[in-house]
Amino acid sequence: MLTIILNLKAKVMANKRKCLTCKEYDYPKKGIVCNVGFFCCDDCRRDYAFKKTVKQIAKAKVNQEKENKRAVTELNRKTLKWQHAATQPVFNKLRRLQEFKWFKDRDIEPYCISCRKTKMDWCNGHFKTVGSTLRLAYDVKNSYLQCNTHCNKHKSGNIENYKLGLISRFGKEKAQEIMSYCEENTHSIKYHWQDLEDMRKEFNAEIRQLEKELL
After folding, report:
1. With a threshold of 0.85, does the pTM exceed it?
2. How far apart are CA 137 and CA 112, in angstroms?
């Protein structure tokens, strides 16, 4: 008896369709059948059409915002200001990794060029600041591993100790060569946005290699 009832119920449900809006089942002849599916009443059909229109408008808005963002990015990409802002962090990361590799190859724990402390919050410390000497912004001779908070920020680079750190690390003669190089190469340089973009690609390629080596 139970089997018969279940079979009859299944047969009845098989003849019904599920409304796309309210999810209730009803006979097709009592509702509305259209290309998108079945609706039990006109209110459900209108509600479905309204919600679909709202979604389409929202999607179009999101797509337009993405397109606007891409357009702005493309315009900014061809400006030096944007390129410098994108390239400097990449170079700084590269120099930190290069420094870690330098210390690792010599089995030395990394230390700050200025205060010589270890286990610090590391940054790429420039001997001549980027703001004062743009030519040296991406020059390895002008940048070494430095603690960020103590020396780089709170002591504005701690330059006097930076000089002593160069001497301690490289010896007086080589350190003097480095400092003289940085002091003498202060004349302006004309970058093109394509130059910086190409540099950044090279930096990123070396970063990926160094990250593998430092694992």
Report:
1. no
2. 19
